[in-house]
Design brief:
The chain is of the alpha/beta class. The protein contains 14 helices and eleven strands. It folds into two domains: about 140 residues, Peroxisomal Thiolase, Chain A, domain 1; about 210 residues, Thiolase/Chalcone synthase (Peroxisomal Thiolase, Chain A, domain 1, 3-Layer(aba) Sandwich). The strands form two sheets. A nine-stranded mixed beta sheet has the order 3-2-4-7-1-8-11-10-9. Strands 5-6 form a two-stranded antiparallel sheet.
Length: about 400
């Protein structure tokens, strides 16, 4: 199965709108706009897009239902020629699961071209208090945890505390992740927060749920992104810069906090090993890492899980500036959810699109030179699962 999927498909087109607060920007119109961007960027004729996968929309249930019921098929003029329209939804990891499904459809010949689209308005489409309440309770056990005041933020803080204890990482090293992400966001015209933020400024902000501080938290935003995937053979003709899907790996660990492994890094590591094995590469071959960043500590944990740093060394690596522009190993070059903005299920989508963008050489001012391999991750809930993908400029062996 590994050899059957490696290098059989490629992302050939991407589209993205600026992330932020856009009260006059329609959720559905944004979905159409990024879909058109991705199709035009792909080099494919739109008639070759026979599968449409809209990711879950949170801010408007009716719009989400309409996406499920082929809204985009009709708006894009794909009626009758399209074979399938269905939703993939697993929270922040939706993009990774959509990539797996799309790659399998193309590799088996069930689809010629797959369009994956996300659009949401978490910044302006919901009452702020409703949004906060929803996210505090989402992916938290309603029977055994919510009655006792437990929340997503509480879990994120607990995971950060445990990681700092196990690794010896300092609070300043965790804060340095924000500093690095802001440096990348400053180069990203689609990022919501482009102003610099030093680690000292992060540490000066108030504690929200110890040890998580206010400036360590992401901000809910409006956003939209899309990508088009086709076969490796078609990709070679469609564009000069395909991003081949070389490896994928996944692990689901838990739902309830009490069932979460004490050592998440070890529990998730097999996902990285599966992705590397399928791709035929190792951590030392990675040129850029696009890491899902619900909390800054997750970036450090994931770097160690991916083998990009020795255990307990990620904090010092980031603090030394090695993940920032011009560093040894660029990490999350769009600024991530902590700077580009949290768009719900689109957080992982933006990271995946950025991985493809870097491999395709389309990242503009923040382009990392000579990206042969990019590793990308996504996670749903707060540490409930982890997905790893390797994209490459060449098909590989």
């Amino acid at each position: 199965m590994v050899k059957q999927l490696r290098g059989k498909s490629a992302i050939v087109g991407i589209g993205e709108l600026p992330t932020g607060h856009f009260p006059d920007r329609s959720l559905t119109r944004s979905a159409v706009d990024v879909a058109v961007m991705a199709i035009r960027d792909s080099g494919l004729d739109k008639s070759e897009i026979d599968t449409v996968i809209p990711l879950g929309t949170i801010a408007n249930g009716l719009d989400n239902t309409n996406f499920v019921c082929s809204y985009l098929v009709e708006e894009l003029g794909l009626g009758i020629s399209a074979r399938a329209n269905f939703q993939v939804m697993s929270g922040g990891s939706s993009s990774s699961n959509a990539l797996k499904v799309a790659s399998a459809l193309v590799a088996t010949g069930l689809s010629r071209g797959v369009l994956v689209v996300h659009s949401d308005r978490l910044g302006t489409g919901l009452d702020p208090q409703v949004a906060v309440d929803m996210f505090s309770k989402a992916s938290v056990n309603q029977e055994y945890e919510i009655p006792y005041g437990w929340s997503q933020l509480g879990l994120g803080a607990l995971i950060q505390q445990r990681y700092m204890f196990d690794s010896g990482a300092s609070e300043r090293q965790v804060a340095a992740v924000i500093e690095s992400l802001r440096k990348w966001a400053a180069l990203n015209p689609n990022a919501m927060i482009r102003s610099p933020r030093s680690a000292e400024e992060v540490l000066a902000s108030e504690v929200i749920s110890s040890p998580v501080r206010k400036r360590m938290m992401n901000v809910l935003a409006d956003g939209a992104a899309a990508f088009v995937l086709t076969s490796a053979e078609r990709a070679a003709d469609a564009t000069a810069t395909p991003a081949y899907v070389l490896g994928m790996g996944s692990r689901c660990t838990n739902f309830s906090t009490t069932q979460q492994p004490d050592d998440l890094i070890s529990a998730w590591r097999p996902a990285a090993l599966d992705a590397y094995t399928m791709a035929g590469i190792g951590p030392g071959d990675v040129d850029v890492a696009q890491i899902y960043d619900a909390f800054p500590s997750f970036v450090l944990m994931t770097m160690e899980m991916l083998g990009l740093c020795e255990p307990g060394q990620a904090g010092a690596f980031v603090e030394a500036g090695h993940t920032s522009p011009g560093g040894k190993l660029p990490v999350t070059t769009n600024g991530g959810m902590l700077a580009q903005g949290h768009t719900g299920t689109g957080g992982g989508m933006a990271v995946l699109v950025e991985a493809a963008r870097q491999v395709m050489g389309k990242a503009g001012e923040r382009q990392v030179p000579n990206v042969d391999f990019a590793v990308e991750t996504a996670s749903g809930g707060v540490g409930m699962d982890l997905h790893v993908a390797v994209l490459g400029r060449e098909l590989g062996q």
